[in-house]
Structures are given as C-alpha cells and as structure tokens.
Design goal:
single chain; 210 residues; alpha/beta; 6 helices; 7 strands; 30% helix; globular
Length: 210
C-alpha cells in the first residue's frame, strides 16, 4: 500500500461530519454473525484491531475512525490478510453510533474500547472530544448487562473525564477504584507501548454494564 499523508486531528464538529455514515449489511461484512462483537471507537490506523482479529478470531471486530484515508488502508490490509472477522468504518462516532447499534442483533455487542482519544487540550475544544454524554447514553441503551467498556489515555484530564462520564451514568459500574496497572486486553496499542517506553503513565479503567 502506498504511503499517504493524513491530518493528525480532524474537527468532528465540521459540517462535513454531521451526517451519519451509511451502515453496511453485516452479513456481507462478517463470515459468522454469531460471534460476539468488539467495537473500537477512534481506531486510527486500526493496528490494535488487526492484531486482535488475528490473536482471538472467535470475535468479530469493528473499528470506527473519522479519518477516511486511514479506514481505506485498514480495510485494504484486512482484505490482503483475508480476515473475515474485521471491518473498519469511516464515520463520526457521535453521529453514527446510534444507528449502528440499532442495526446490530441484540446482545451482539459485547465489548467497547476507547483508547487514547484526541485530547483537544483547549477548553473551547473540549466539545470535540469523542466521549460526550450522548455517546455514553447510546452505549447505555444498547449494551447488554455484563458487557465491557475499556478506556485508557496518557492524558490524566481526558482519562478522568471519560471515567466520570461513564462512571456517573447509572448503566455503568467501575470495576476498580484506582487506575489499572495492566491492560486487560490481549493486545496493547502502539500509543500505549510508546508511552510506556518513554516512562510515562497510562490511565486505564474497565467498566461493565449493570
């Protein structure tokens, strides 16, 4: 695949990102729809899910990413590898998540990960962050009891905001009071490995739907 230049940050409030993305027919995407679904919101280049799909093929994996060139290349890589349990969708998660969840078979979504989302440090830009109250509500409405949400960031303020927005919602229960020392996922993200190599902390939490 050829190298492409992709903007590091995309403003999700821009007019071009205000319409939901068309939802694919899942039977044409996954070979086996009976597998549980792992949804990764803000998957970037998709390397985390690519490794997960190979490490544990008993799951289906879906990555959402707002930067469409990254999604094109991630799906090209999937096709080259012949993986039938992996798909990437270019969308604004805050506009597409509800119709996407409505399209799934009840109980299909078993795990959600949100890892190292864009921090948008300026206060006036906080509304651009991906974990907004409507997104939390959408997940609360469609996730089944016992299903998991895993969040992590290398920015304490962002991690605390995600923790509070999920943890203060009655549908979700924190599985620990303190930040997790280790990642419960089978595969770390590239950002996570780079952060730990630099000796910086990663703030992680696991929640479950009540």
């Amino acid at each position: 695949m050829s190298l492409i230049r992709v903007r590091e940050h995309v403003n999700p409030l821009a007019l071009k990102y205000q319409q939901p993305t068309e939802i694919p027919h899942w039977e044409s995407v996954y070979a086996d729809l009976s597998r549980p679904l792992h949804l990764d919101i803000g998957c970037a280049k998709g390397r985390f899910l690519q490794k997960m799909a190979q490490t544990d093929p008993s799951w289906n994996y879906l990555g959402l990413e707002i930067r469409s060139p990254l999604v094109v290349h991630a799906n090209e890589w999937r096709d080259e590898q012949g993986l039938k349990n992996l798909h990437f969708l270019a969308c604004n998660a805050n506009k597409t998540l509800r119709p996407l969840l409505q399209s799934l078979v009840p109980g299909q979504l078993q795990r959600v990960t949100i890892q190292f989302p864009d921090p948008w440090f300026k206060k006036k830009h906080h509304k651009r962050r991906v974990v907004q109250p409507p997104l939390v509500q959408d997940l609360a409405d469609f996730m089944a009891p016992g299903t998991e949400v895993f969040i992590q960031s290398d920015v304490l303020e962002v991690a605390e905001e995600m923790r509070d927005r999920f943890g203060n919602h009655p549908a979700f229960q924190l599985q620990s009071i303190d930040w997790l020392d280790t990642n419960p996922m089978l595969v770390p993200t590239e950002r996570e490995l780079a952060t730990l190599r630099d000796g910086d902390p990663v703030y992680r939490l696991l929640l479950k739907h009540r």
